[in-house]
Amino acid sequence: MLNFHFYTPTQVVFGKDAEEETGGLVRQFGGQKVLLHYGGKSAKESGLLDRVCRTLEQEGISYVQLGGVKPNPRLSLVREGIDLCRREGVDFILAVGGGSVIDSAKAIGYGLENDCDVWDIFTRKTLPTGCTPIGAVLTIAAAGSEMSDSAVITNEDGWVKRGFNSNYARCRFAVMNPELTYTVSPYQTAAGCTDILMHTFERYFTPVTDAALTDALGEALVRTVIECSRVVMREPRDYNARAQIMWAGSLSHNGLTGCGTLGDWATHQLGHELSAQYDVAHGASLAAVWGSWARYVMGENPARFAQFAVNVMGVSPRSSEEETGRLGILSFEEFLRGIGMPVSIREMGIEADYTVAKELAYGCSFQETRTIGTFRKLGLKDMEAIYLMAK
Amino acid sequence: MLNFHFYTPTQVVFGKDAEEETGGLVRQFGGQKVLLHYGGKSAKESGLLDRVCRTLEQEGISYVQLGGVKPNPRLSLVREGIDLCRREGVDFILAVGGGSVIDSAKAIGYGLENDCDVWDIFTRKTLPTGCTPIGAVLTIAAAGSEMSDSAVITNEDGWVKRGFNSNYARCRFAVMNPELTYTVSPYQTAAGCTDILMHTFERYFTPVTDAALTDALGEALVRTVIECSRVVMREPRDYNARAQIMWAGSLSHNGLTGCGTLGDWATHQLGHELSAQYDVAHGASLAAVWGSWARYVMGENPARFAQFAVNVMGVSPRSSEEETGRLGILSFEEFLRGIGMPVSIREMGIEADYTVAKELAYGCSFQETRTIGTFRKLGLKDMEAIYLMAK
């Protein structure tokens, strides 16, 4: 087990009517002038935005609004948010939405607190020294951004997607009412569940395999999410299943499922490039490549995939770890298909021929300047091969 | 699943040589004059105290020392600590030790920050409005006080043991090096593991049984601790097993294993009375009564005990949930015996005849002014019955 730091300061307020506490929480964390940041019209039409505004008004907190965050949130809106916040003297950013809105809020917060171009932080040219305090009212269970240290932004100039992690950007609070996720479409729900599962997978398929507690917690989380994903596909308004998924989304990416291990993150990098170039849903991009990644790397440690197959997917052990592991991968892909997720790039409507695979790999390798992954370190040729396997 | 709040702001620094970071952490959290609080001579003799002091000196942080914390930490030393801190202008308390030392530090912190007699907080006469910042260097995996909101103090005047919980007292940081627990005696190690297990049991055996993720995480934690307890009984210097237990100790009592459920805590209350009257190790007192408590209350929800038996203890389901549940209880008691824990009061050297059971029940019921438990609410007569069953 590796040494680790664990830091999850976000105050979670979870359950029915939790959004009623929003104003009080902003007050508690010192917010006086708030940027209310959100996505499309659903937050408005559902009445959620109004309810949240009312709680701010009840606390005498003034606010300005900036909507329009898109999935794979864009740098241009982040810049617009930074300008708006500067003009208005904003000291607290309240994200009402899913991971995209929260990530956009984090990027605005970095921009406000650091005297540099915000994109320089995402390209690691400048190291941030702070971030404006952020709170979240979560409406989609997926990215885990409400408790995580990470933010991912897409620069439309070249469609480059880059993430940056730091504790500065951890939300001060996260308001989570599972009922708010009832109206998330089946496709987005499934993509969200996939993202949640992948946040644990990225920490579970690792060269460090002696963190028994972290393993067991990760396996428990994944089993629960798989079970509850199937339930919400049949019954979108099942409170309890929505609640397990929503809470799992936070725990899957707040660090808990990676304590003492080394993250892999290759699947995320492979998926990010697909999202950046084709603007597909993040979770779907991960579903499309994971099986191919898994088959490509399994030889490094078949025992790990066999453990996954048995403990998570309920596969009976076969004569070899490879065989057990392969059945685990297959069983997980069947689960993904069952909830309507693609398990190939073609199933997202993209023809990934050899030229496309080469382009994706070139982008994913940052123009051949980096490798990805730790379970198995992957170079340009490996990425090409995986994209081709996944086509 | 019930609504819940989850708040675990403690910064965890976990692993080999973690104590080297202590001074820097105190500095990070603004400590300028520190009370170094510890127990007996082991922290001194092992050289740990010197190493910790060196890290404070390197940061230019001055400190005063107060040792002598005993298991079931005493109010008189708390009062002494408060006086010392007032005289010396202490603004940060550093607990080097196990749960008793951290609890004592929390009580000192309450006393310093609140203008009342500190015992009034533990008897709920006065509600605290703050607590001096606390950091912990953990040397025993057991109480989970390094991440929990709770502190338990014993008033020698009448040997009354009382706990108080509030977020004010959550440690700013916790330094956890599993190697520091190598020298904990087998008995104290086993008592610690029992305490860890019970912190999850108290949240798992609850009337709220629809929190599937919390259940699964709790079961995973308990299975891991059981397995690793057996390992450290054979091999006290097994780093990895010590590490799993240490991390489980924090997660078992920081709130994670109770999200969305209702705690029971009857076993703790029954055990506290035993510790208060007979000064026995906390974990051992829990081991001595849990099986009797379990048999006494199982009828309320046999399915819960059957789930525990199957998912945690590996019992094959029998013809009735009661039978499966009983086998789970028995199997857990066998585990306790295997690591040298008592499963009756007699095995702690106390003859709990009818008079003693009555006295214990009277104390545990706060002179017949309260009930305990939520899985099944227990009055004076129930407590008597359980103490007698456990004798």
The average pLDDT score of chain A comes to 97
Question: Strand order, biggest sheet of chain A?
Answer: 1-8-5-4-2-3
Distance from first to last alpha carbon of chain A: 36 Å
The portion of residues assigned to helices of chain A is: 40-55%
Q: CATH H-level name of the largest domain in chain A... which superfamily?
A: Dehydroquinate synthase-like - alpha domain
Number of domains of chain A: 2
Largest interface: pair, residues per side:
A-B, 41 and 40 residues
* Overall shape of chain A: globular
**CATH C-level label of the largest domain in chain A:** Mainly Alpha
Largest sheet of chain A: 6 strands, parallel
What kind of oligomer do you see?
A: homodimer
Order of helices and strands of chain A: EHEHHEHEHHEEEEHHHHHHHHH
- Strand fraction of chain A equals 5-15%
Q: Poorly predicted ranges of chain A (pLDDT <50, ≥5 residues)?
A: none
**CATH architecture heading of the largest domain in chain A:** Up-down Bundle
